[in-house]
Amino acid sequence: MDTVHIIDLQFKKIPNSIAAFLVETSEGPILIESGPESTFEALQSGVEKIGYQIEDIQHVFLSHIHFDHAGAAWKFANHGAKIYLHPKGAPHLANPDKLWNSAKMIYGDQMEELWGEMKAIPPSQLISMTDGQTISIGSTSLKAWFTPGHAVHHIAWQHGDTVFTGDVAGVKIDGGPVTPPCPPPDIHIEDWKKSIERIKALQPTALYLTHYGKVIEIDTHFEELELILDDWAVWIKGYYEKKVEQQEVVPLFITYTQNQLKKSGLSKETLDKYEKANPSWMSVAGLYRYWKIKEKLAKTEQ
Ligand SMILES: [Zn+2]
């Protein structure tokens, strides 16, 4: 089995928050996830520490196109690398203006500091996958499994008996509990659960979470994830139905989720990492949108 290296991107100078994965193949190193452009220096020094140069990486596999997973992919495309991703993500990386501008509405002038720069990738270097398709690099194979729920353009990459799960297997930091990142606009609880079933059916022996690292207790991990996904969705639904403004809900949700995390005896430092990797305000917005769409659908069906 190929060696997998976890590179800590030290997002906002915090360890164990965002990872990229370097896999050594018989044809050189490949990368799963690029992280945002703002952490490119950390990625570069991580790659060099393993003994390679950035230019050696000719294949980059993305779980999805959120900035913290894909923001630096164009840097690799610049030296000719191929970027493998979901067909629904490809147009956004070919022309990132729309993605950037809609994120800017949320992050405002913090955009550059958080995510760095984003430049277009030539469409000829963006390789859109089909569900179940395998890419072979030397003796290494990666298989794309479409896994919506967190994002419609999400892929979990199977590598032998392990899976790089992007965000669909949630966030788990420093051995704490698993939590689901629920940003707008694609959150879909039912699809997410189906995606979990898909990954479980592969019977992996390990998962690699972008936030953060290797998980081997797979059954309990997914059990916990499904429970907390329902728990958060139902909690938010209560406020959504009472038409409480989102900005009023955010501090309540932070208290609610921090108390859940504290029950596991997490340190203040780890609580901070969870909030950085999976901000509460985003999940409030994402789950409000989920319930709103569900309500609309129910109305049109009547
Ligand atoms: Zn994401």
From TrEMBL:
It holds the Pfam family Lactamase_B. PANTHER family: METALLO BETA-LACTAMASE SUPERFAMILY LIPOPROTEIN, METALLO-BETA-LACTAMASE DOMAIN-CONTAINING. It comes from the Bacteria. It comes from Litoribacter ruber. This is MBL fold metallo-hydrolase. SUPFAM superfamilies: Metallo-hydrolase/oxidoreductase. SMART domains: Lactamase_B (SM00849). Residues 17-211 form the Metallo-beta-lactamase domain. InterPro entries: Metallo-B-lactamas (IPR001279), NDM-1-like (IPR050855), RibonucZ/Hydroxyglut_hydro (IPR036866), ST1585_MBL-fold (IPR037482).
